[in-house]
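If you are new to this repository, start here. Below is one unmodified record pulled from the training split, so you can see the exact layout before writing a loader.
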Amino acid sequence: MHLLDGPRARGAFTLRAVMSPPWAIDIRAGAALDLIVVTSGRLWLATGAERIEAGRGDVVLVRGPEPYVVSDRLGRRPDITIEPGQRCVAAGGEEVHLTMGHGVGTWGNDPDGEDSMVIGVYEDAGEVGRLALAALPPLTLLPSGAVEPSLVDLLSREVTTERVARGALNDRLLDCLLIMAVRAWLETHPDTGPNRLGARHDPIVARALDLMHERPEHPWGLEALAAECAVSRTTLAARFQRAVGDPPMTYLRSWRLALACDLLVAEPALGLESVAARVGYGSAFAFSAAFKAHRGVSPSEYRRDRAA
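And here is the target side for that same chain:
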């Protein structure tokens, strides 16, 4: 399993937005990640600390849950707010989701507007997904051509087409687009520093990551990992820390507990002993103690809270 297997679209919110200036939208939906492809015109995107301009074909990744403003001009005062659950509210407080709709999957202040974009929203990426997304900058701009244009075109068409399995296909296309975008970013930023996603340029670290990801249930220790990688413990520890930013055993604990979080939610009937065994803990007691120390709540409380 690769870290990028984590963020998976499941009934993701996808939309083609079409706008004519002046326009500005305050995004406060709190999603884990928004993916925006500019299909015509230009737009500005502003977070609390960054400002970027994007043109046709550019792809923007916005790591949540912090709010941001997207507009035709920097500094424009928003007249629409997107709230949690994709609720669209005008400045006066009235909902505008339906009044600004223009057929299947299309929304905006002008169906023939010069500025358009396709938006895909990952409301909840899961804990494994959060590990992956945390390695990205809060705002990522990829220039036109960085991802396969035909994939962008296909998603743009499918978002606005009422056909069988439209939602399922949009989810898969969105996942493909996200993976290609992250890969393109990693390839153009090889020296970003310690990074869980970019650490694979070191073959020793890549091997250690593969072992942890593919066999989390194995009783790994630093010595066993180093032996599998054919290096000393000191060499593995130093190279792993330099590439990933965490010691190997610290990363392994985070990985196991992220997997456990997702298992607790995805398989509510799975007992704690089974969850513990799948993620490398010898007993439910040891697993529960590690989970509470890491998350602040017990596995049962976490499962109950997420189901609420």
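Two things worth knowing about this chain: The longest helix spans residues 166-188. The chain is about 40% helix and 20% strand.
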